[in-house]
Design brief:
The protein is α+β, with helices and mostly antiparallel strands and about 260 residues long. About 30% of the residues lie in helices and about 25% in strands. The strands form two sheets. The protein has a six-stranded mixed beta sheet with strand order 1-2-3-4-5-6, with helices on both faces. A hairpin with an 8-residue loop joins β7 and β8.
Length: about 260
C-alpha cells in the first residue's frame, strides 16, 4: 500500500521505525547504484559498530525505540553501612544509575570506488539519529571532516526532522529535510537541496570521477518502494498525534492526512 504522504512519512520517525527504514533505504540506493553505475565503478557498503549514550531527554525526543538501558554493574541501592568510627556522624551515599541509555549502533554507508585501482570517489551517508544527537554526533562530525579533507565527493541525505543539522558556514534554506552534495573540486561550496514535509522527495545527483556525468537517483521512487516493502501503512498508528519539531500548520496538515488513514 502506498504512503498517504507525497514525500517523507513523518510518522516513521515519530514512532521509532527509522532504523528499519534506514536499512531498507540504504540497501535500495546501493542496489540502484549497482544496476546503473558505469562499469568503471563499484558501490560497496561499509559499516562501523559502536556504542552511543543517550540522555533521558534525547531518548524521549529522538529515539522512542530505545528501550534497552545497559547500566553495567550497579552497586546495590542500600549498601551495607560501615559502623561509625569514634562515634562521629556519617552520611552514606545511595548509589543510583545515571539517566543514560546506552545503545550499540551499526552505522552503514556507501562508498563508490573507481576501478581497477579501487580509488575512493564518493561517500553516501543517510543520517541517523545517532549522527544528529547523542554522543554519536561528535564521532560522525569527526568522520565527516576526514572525508572532506580528502579529494572525495560527499553526499549526505537527512530525512530526519529531529536532531542537529550538519554544520554549515551560513544558515540553511528553510526546509524539513535536506540533501547535501559536497563535490571534491568545489569545496568549501556545497549544493543544498531542501524540501518540506509536504513535498515529494527530489532526484539528487551522485557525483562521479571527472569527466563522467553525475548519476541521478530518484529518492521519491526508492522511498515509495521501501515504504511499501516495510508495510508501514499497516504498522504505523496514524490515530496518534505527530510528535517532532514541525511547524504548527505542517503538523495540522500531517495529522489531517493521518486521520483519513485511521478512518477518523
Amino acid at each position: 500500500m502506498p504512503s498517504p504522504f507525497p514525500g517523507v512519512d513523518p510518522f516513521i520517525e515519530a514512532q521509532g521505525h527509522w532504523a528499519d527504514l534506514h536499512s531498507r533505504l540504504i540497501s535500495a540506493i546501493g542496489d540502484e547504484l549497482a544496476d546503473r553505475l558505469p562499469n568503471a565503478y563499484v558501490a560497496r557498503f561499509e559499516e562501523n559498530v559502536h556504542t552511543v549514550s543517550w540522555s533521558a531527554d534525547e531518548v524521549q525526543k529522538f529515539r522512542p525505540d530505545v528501550a534497552l538501558i545497559r547500566r553495567g554493574d550497579v552497586a546495590p541501592l542500600h549498601p551495607e553501612r560501615p559502623s561509625a568510627a569514634s562515634g562521629a556522624a556519617t552520611i552514606e551515599p545511595v548509589t543510583l544509575p545515571l539517566a543514560l541509555a546506552q545503545e550499540e549502533v551499526r552505522d552503514v554507508w556507501i562508498e563508490i570506488l573507481s576501478l581497477p585501482a579501487q580509488e575512493l570517489v564518493t561517500v553516501i551517508e543517510i543520517l541517523s539519529p545517532t549522527n544528529k544527537s547523542s554522543s554519536g554526533r561528535e564521532a560522525y562530525l569527526s568522520k565527516r571532516r576526514t572525508v572532506l579533507d580528502q579529494p572525495v565527493h560527499l553526499v549526505e541525505i537527512d530525512l530526519l526532522r529531529g536532531g542537529a543539522r550538519v554544520p554549515m558556514a551560513r544558515p540553511l534554506p528553510r526546509g524539513d529535510f535536506y540533501t547535501f552534495v559536497a563535490r571534491a573540486g568545489r569545496r568549501p561550496e556545497c549544493d543544498v537541496y531542501a524540501w518540506s514535509v509536504r513535498d515529494a522527495l527530489p532526484t539528487i545527483p551522485i557525483p562521479l570521477k571527472a569527466p563522467d556525468p553525475d548519476l541521478p537517483i530518484d529518492l521519491s521512487r526508492l522511498f515509495a518502494r521501501c515504504y511499501d516493502r516495510g508495510r508501514y501503512a499497516s504498522l504505523l498508528r496514524y490515530e496518534l498525534p505527530l510528535v517532532g519539531p514541525y511547524e504548527a500548520e505542517d503538523r495540522q496538515w500531517a495529522e489531517g492526512i493521518a486521520r483519513g488513514c485511521a478512518g477518523g
